[in-house]
From TrEMBL:
One of its GO terms (biological process) is IMP salvage. InterPro entries: AMPD, Metal_Hydrolase. This is Uncharacterized protein. The lineage of its organism: Eukaryota, Metazoa, Ecdysozoa, Arthropoda, Crustacea. Signal peptide: none annotated. Gene3D superfamilies: Metal-dependent hydrolases.
Length: 50
């Protein structure tokens, strides 16, 4: 069902998984969101490891 609505690459992370014609979310926004979540997770897990 998701593949029908989001495209065949929806499981790929970041911009690679975005089909702007289906999601109506620009690649630059998806890239920003992906970069932000990666940074947040890095901060969380590096704090836990200390």
């Amino acid at each position: 069902m998701k593949q029908h609505w989001l495209g065949p690459n929806y499981t790929k992370p970041g911009v690679d998984g975005n089909d702007v014609t289906r999601t109506n979310i620009p690649d630059i926004r998806v890239g920003y969101r992906y970069e932000t979540i990666q940074d947040e997770l890095l901060n969380i897990f590096s704090s836990v490891a200390k």
